[in-house]
Amino acid sequence: MSDAWIDINLDAIANNYREVTQQLSPAARVMAVVKADAYGLGAVPVAQTLQKLGCPAFAVTTVEEGLILRQHGVEGIILVLGPVSAEQMAEALTGDLQLTLSDFHMLREWETVAAGLGIEAKVHLKLETGMGRTGFFEKEWGELAAQLKKSPHITPVGVYTHLARAAQRDRAYTRQQVESFQRGVNLLEEQGFAGLWKHVCNSAAFLDYPDWHYDFIRTGTLLIGHIPAPAFAGKLKLQDPWVAKARIVSLRRVPIGTFVGYQSIYRTKAETQLAVIPVGYADGFGVQPHFVPQGVWDFIKIVIKNFLALCRIYIGQESVILQGHRVPVAGKIGMQLTVLDVGNLPCETGDEVILPLRRTQANPRLLRQYWSEKRLIAKRHIKEGFLQSYPEYP
């Protein structure tokens, strides 16, 4: 058994899916976003769980992610949200993936590849309305319709856009985006492209704008048990399916004044116990994304935090949960070993701690270890006559 792993509760995923579908407009369906290995939960078991509940569509970022789902028996619509090169087209088309068409270069290349294979390429048209990442600008929509008519192997089946500020309380920008999107849909319909599946809602927009659920809503955040922003708290009864854990692998008592870790930035203030866990920044522990200050007050807080750190006063110091108690990291987080100051808590080696890992930054080995161990458990149960088969993932 590993000393560091991630526990996944697929029943919580199922609960969250049901919560979403209860607030879904009658004509809309869920497109479950399982990109980045389902936000670190394991795309295959998550998609398999949702498929059993009737989820008809899934969204990923890359062709590779989509093909992995197909290889593990995931059916229905699988939409690749990111750009796809001509080199990936053959695999994507033979894997029955639907693709996002977002520029004219793709359109020309895809028509050539699809024609060579004699395969129809089903695509969703991405309209750029204010995200500023990928998609056809409004001035290009007329030309897009014209070029599609000259591309017999490219078959549009959907049209969508990506909302940039749906989680913010100022709704003006989001409304502008949807109005722009609707102009694009109207133009396409006038040019003969009617009946396309429409989807604009991410998790935040799904909760705030039921009139825009259209044919699909794209949600990932809600399915993994997170709300998009504090203002949405209480709108759904979500469950958290993800817990990162580690075991204490070393424990010793040290006297007051003991220095801990690189650069000796931590010094014990009393006689205490130091516990070592086999997790570090190589596993994503303590790794934080870079946030741009959203105003002067945000900037001031960052400056104050860094100044206090210079004085060896650490605000927001990393910590873990041990027996229901929050215990701090002692000193710097190591690459694969981290020291905790557990004080006088009664504990011993082998005890579990809960880690505050960010899901998408956790080392995938922790998740692989979890599924490998579940597979071994299932094999043992088969041998003992409790199960008929064991999971195929990973």
From TrEMBL:
GO molecular function: alanine racemase activity; pyridoxal phosphate binding
InterPro entries to which the protein is assigned, alphabetical: Ala_racemase (IPR000821), Ala_racemase/Decarboxylase_C (IPR009006), Ala_racemase_C (IPR011079), Ala_racemase_N (IPR001608), Ala_racemase_pyridoxalP-BS (IPR020622), PLP-binding_barrel (IPR029066)
Gene3D superfamilies: Alanine racemase, Lyase, Ornithine Decarboxylase, Chain A, domain 1
Stretches assigned to the Alanine racemase C-terminal domain: 241-371
EC class of the enzyme, as a word: isomerase
One annotated Gene Ontology cellular component of this protein: cytosol
A biological process from GO: D-alanine biosynthetic process
Record bears the keyword Protease: no
Superkingdom assignment: Bacteria
Binding site for substrate: R133, M335
Its EC number(s): 5.1.1.1
Cofactor(s) listed in the protein's UniProt record: pyridoxal 5'-phosphate
Residues bearing PTM N6-(pyridoxal phosphate)lysine: K35
The keyword Isomerase appears for this protein: yes
Assigned keywords, A-Z: Isomerase, Pyridoxal phosphate
NCBIfam families per the UniProt record, alphabetical: alr (TIGR00492)
The name this protein goes by in its record: Alanine racemase
